Amino acid sequence: MEKNTSYTIGEILIKSEGYLRKKRIKNPRLEAELLLSFVHSTDRLWIYTNWFEKIRDDKLERLRQLLLRRTKGEPLHYILGYKEFMTLRFYLQPGVLIPRFETEELVEKVVEDSRKGNFRVFADIGCGSGVIAISIAKFVENSTVYATDISDKAIKLTAENAEVNGVENKVKIFKGNLLEPLEPFIDQIEVFVSNPPYVNHEEWKSLDEEIVKYEPKEALLAPEDGLFYYRAIIENLLKNRTRNKGKLIYFEISPTRIEGVKKLIKRLKIERYEVLNDMSEKARILKIVL
Ligand SMILES: C[S@@+](CC[C@H](N)C(=O)[O-])C[C@H]1O[C@@H](n2cnc3c(N)ncnc32)[C@H](O)[C@@H]1O
Prior knowledge:
290 residues, Helicase, Ruva Protein, domain 3, Rossmann fold, 7-stranded mixed sheet, elongated
């Protein structure tokens, strides 16, 4: 039988928070709660309803190991193996990008417009863990979402996450380069969504070490000026202007890329587009009507 230590759950939470703060982790309380509840296979509320219970030896040892990994720089969500996105749970693994909060705003916009416009068939290009495709499938009624990625790991994880979230029949997953695997279905697709790699070489050098060391470079870094993937996707769809006329594209963009994006739009003679800000008033979404 496992022994209890002389520490309570509450004491360990406070100690863990202090340790993470000392090591300059940005949200020490939240991360301490997530790690402590993770080692107990439960949720954060459990900590507060078990505040005065003694923590077991084996759980404390496991927590120590996780705190050590975290303070050595390993991202929290690779340690936990999941992240919440749009209230849904997405399993994660190294080699696949950790979804960012900003991307929720992109998905919310797509869902809102699609409910109004009655759109039903979507494509998510560069699906990663599947957060965009699966959230659309979940929140837009009677939808079908085609998801593509060049990475085997991403494709497998999207399939797993689609099943976990009960939308495996609505999300069709294909491995391949950008729109190439979608060619047989392109006539049916009404809305294209993508959060492509958009960090350029210059910016890559100034990213946090935690990102550079642990997250997949090929999910973040874009060749040339960082606009390579936007250009490739738009130009591909414009090749057949008649077939794609009136279709929508929603991109996540970097606020630092906005001038370049506008130049690209102008060069491609796109007249109907909107740049939308995120909650912190930074340009984040590019919506194009083809
Ligand atoms: C910024 S991540 C976005 C992942 C996910 N959609 C999200 O928002 O968290 C970009 C994704 O594009 C994928 N990717 C990179 N080059 C690609 C290509 N040529 N064709 C398809 N997917 C590609 C990467 O593997 C990665 O999963």
